[in-house]
Amino acid sequence: MIEEQPKISEWIPIAEKLPEPGEYILLSFENYTLADIGRYEKDEDDSGAFYLGDEDESCASINLFVNAWMPLPKPYRPDDSMEAEEMLTL
User: Fold this and answer.
1) CA count, 13 A, side-chain hemisphere, 57
2) What is the pTM (predicted TM-score) of this model?
3) Of 48, 53, 56, 76, which is most buried with the most CB atoms under 10 A?
């Protein structure tokens, strides 16, 4: 059975699916209005936690409760047809 892929810019509730460990993602919080970039890490006992950016403290340890996440968009890349010299003058 093929698993449905989420649409780009669609929040994925953590109750439905957890992100791949170590991948940077956009986090939504149930108790904070702004989203932030973070990651999900699994522990040795197979439990996991969300972390902001490269921080070592989990979101829960600083009273931020993740309720959903979404993949980050791909970084902007100039049109491949643009010459390297043209990109330097921009």
Assistant:
1) 7
2) 0.75
3) 48
Structure-block tokens of residue 11: 């929040």
What 3 state SS string does the chain have? CCCCCCCCCCCEECCCCCCCCCCEEEEEECCEEEEEEEEEEECCCCCEEEEECCCCCECHHHCCCEEEEEECCCCCCCCCCCCHHHHHCC
Give the model's pLDDT for residue 46.
85
Q: What's the sign of the alpha-carbon dihedral 75, 81, 86, 90?
A: negative
Place of tokens 């993740």: 66
Could you read off the pLDDT of 1-31 as tens digits, one per residue? 566 665 557 999 999 999 999 999 999 999 9
Q: Which residues contact 50 (CB under 8 A, 6 or more apart)?
A: 27, 38, 39, 40, 58, 59, 60, 66, 69
